[in-house]
Design goal:
This is Berberine/berberine-like domain-containing protein. It comes from Lentinula aff. detonsa. Helix 1 packs antiparallel against helix 2. The chain has one domain: 3-Layer(aba) Sandwich (Vanillyl-alcohol Oxidase, Chain A, domain 3), CATH 3.40.462. Helix content is about 35%, strand content about 15%. It has a three-stranded antiparallel beta sheet, with helices on one face. It contains four helices and three strands; from the N terminus they run E-H-E-E-H-H-H. It is an alpha+beta fold and about 150 residues long.
């Protein structure tokens, strides 16, 4: 069977708990239209401390952020809205679990974020600074012609 459609979404958390892992498994069993995957990336805390200057991501280097990659794949265009909703609902459910466990991170990992995610959810308090830099560097909005998240 050929897979021709897919979507990523994400939450970020600061620790891996058994409750979060079990919740991922529960999501897997309820959303199995064709293919789904959940990956926790346990980044080493030291990964965020290699530079002394401000960065776009993470917005706070003192928070050890572990991205979670939520992936769904399917074949039929007629299932698009079902699968996009499933990806959003899964992220919302897992985000609630992480929040109730006190491990929800302050920013989502931009590489896995679903379209329409607010810039502030990705870059936190850095969003305003990045918007200002974008206006200085790209006054004619050339980068606005591309895809992806936009600082507008």
């Amino acid at each position: 069977m050929e897979i021709s459609r897919g979507i990523y979404n994400t939450i970020s958390h600061t620790a891996v708990t058994m409750n979060l892992v079990e919740s991922m498994q529960n999501q897997s069993s309820s959303n199995s239209l064709l293919l789904n995957g959940y990956v926790i990336e346990p980044f080493l805390p030291e990964a965020y401390h290699h530079g002394d200057t401000d960065t776009a991501y993470p917005p706070n280097r003192n928070e050890n952020i572990h991205p979670m990659n939520i992936y769904y794949a399917w074949t039929s265009e007629s299932s698009d809205s079902i699968m996009l909703d499933a990806a959003r609902q899964t992220a919302a459910s897992l985000q609630q679990i992480a929040s109730s466990n006190g491990i929800l991170a302050s920013a989502k990992y931009p590489n896995y974020a679903i379209f329409g995610t607010p810039i502030g959810d990705l870059y936190g308090e850095n969003a305003d600074r990045l918007h200002h830099i974008k206006n200085l560097v790209d006054p004619f909005n050339v980068m606005g012609l591309t895809g992806g998240f936009k600082f507008e």
